[in-house]
């Protein structure tokens, strides 16, 4: 391995390309591509090179100014070719980067390490960034592919925390989730399977439902039921048969609306109902009897908040644990439907980079449908 | 004071009158009055004489078989004049009794002590009962009137626990409640006042709203707002003005439906929304953003469950604390609207006792409206 000192002797700050905005609004109106030089490395800073960064729904909401986690507006982006010096934010919250230079006072990170961002609002739609150790989390990248790494920090980590932090699930216990074919839902199935937890998975009925069932079974789903079947009066006894009368302790909800209310009925005494999304864009009903007599707790989970309140060490531990549990295969690029967007070529014009980005944004359909668009950096 | 031994030497088990049922159903169909002798006192049992017992809504639901806390069906009611020996339950869950005889091995209870029941399902619509120390909680009756004591165990204790157990409220903090003029709501106001907690009280608009406001103010309410006012767009800034920007940490809900959803909007980050009733008989909506981004917890409270999971010592402590906080005045009979029903005369026929009871039951209107009916025992 190159020593950081040897590396530094000939090191020149790279030119960075980024998708930035200076005020909230419709992404098409406010986003632009931007080229700048990274500030020179200091003894306590890092330079990182992004490898891949997805476009997630929350990123869009953040640019619109309607997301509670705010981006970081800063004048520190670097030396601007045109002398302009406005407060800019870089879009994107998730991605994987490689460390390319390490300030001499930093002892625990090395050139070549793969990192993800330790907080939301960092800005990941860019080729390079200057940062500090506090803002990055290193993880073991031996077992994990590039696209898996780029999409590791939000969905698989959300699944892991929700299975771990709300109730104590032992081998053989049961949990239930709706939106089971969401990215988080699929991670829930894999992590639960690794822990010996039985999953009851609710999905929307669809023409190719058998294909979906086969896919979820292959990930480790114990039982699969459609939202239509859920409303059938026989479902109560069916689920009782599945669980052998065991209580379902945990329900995970990313859909809201009717299915979130229905799901609560199947939770046992003292059960916990955790909401982490609202794909249906509908609130859900809570009947008082669930709260009063069954003592069911209706709680929420937000990965950004967890990240805000936990240390870099805890985050690193989590990442390495999640990588082990998910049984990522380096040769199979991802467990999600995605499309690579080759982006960030040093020689391309800002205009071309912007158009390429906006076209990917279009295809992501605000991220709720279709394949996830992932910028793969060509630097 | 009479020693328990001296007292026992001439003690004869009293004749007991009770409202009983042997199967679930419409109270009018299944309830009957019943006369029996108490089983003789043993070294480890007590005899108690009931002083007053209210008719509560939950009592009716229990007889109908639709309440999760079940009554105690037993063949142990005593020696039956007609030799009949079916499993019977006594109706009623709340009431105050006086100890009239104490088994010689019992050291911590005395003849003359006032007690309430330590569990639900004991049966309080009766003149006398044989029981054990575990089933009764002694309290200090010096500061408290008969009707106050008879209605102490459910509503004031529910208010006390909800203010104490969910979030840590310090002097000057804010809480909000709907159904603020309910029995529990009024206890909440009094206890919060004693602790220096500011209360924002939501009540339904009505023709005599000013009288109600005056009454709640006299109990210690900090602010009062109608459900109509709550929906006004100016309310947000009004409440912000009241709280001086302080976060509202706790919301208590006994109504459900729209007001329960509205109330949640005023809770601050990490707030707790506790449901203990559903007077509107409507479930309420939970928007995902409250759960995910504001981390509001939607929980329930049920006094019966608390009683089941806590010791006699803890219950006794709570009662004495509640009596102090509520500033009961022995000379003013109660803080609730009630009507005394003189009941249990030793010489009255079972038929007359039953009819008197059913007439009170009618007036209680299943307890949701009108004055609370309280059996005052004429023994």
From TrEMBL, chains A, B:
Span of domain Enoyl reductase (ER): 26-342
Gene Ontology cellular component annotations, sorted alphabetically: mitochondrion
EC number: 1.3.1.104
CDD domains, per database record: ETR
The keyword Transmembrane is annotated on this UniProt entry: no
UniProt keyword annotation of Iron present: no
Main location: mitochondrion
Location(s), subcellular: Mitochondrion
A Gene Ontology biological process term: fatty acid biosynthetic process
Catalytic function, reaction form: a 2,3-saturated acyl-[ACP] + NADP(+) = a (2E)-enoyl-[ACP] + NADPH + H(+)
Source organism, top-level taxon: Eukaryota
Keyword terms: Fatty acid biosynthesis, Fatty acid metabolism, Lipid biosynthesis, Lipid metabolism, Mitochondrion, NADP, Oxidoreductase, Transit peptide
GO molecular function list: enoyl-[acyl-carrier-protein] reductase (NADPH) activity
Matches recorded under SUPFAM superfamilies: GroES-like, NAD(P)-binding Rossmann-fold domains
Pfam family, one: ADH_zinc_N
Similarity section: Belongs to the zinc-containing alcohol dehydrogenase family. Quinone oxidoreductase subfamily.
UniProt-listed PANTHER family: ENOYL-[ACYL-CARRIER-PROTEIN] REDUCTASE, MITOCHONDRIAL (PTHR43981)
Name of the protein this chain belongs to: enoyl-[acyl-carrier-protein] reductase
Species this protein is from: Rhizophagus irregularis (strain DAOM 197198w) (Glomus intraradices)
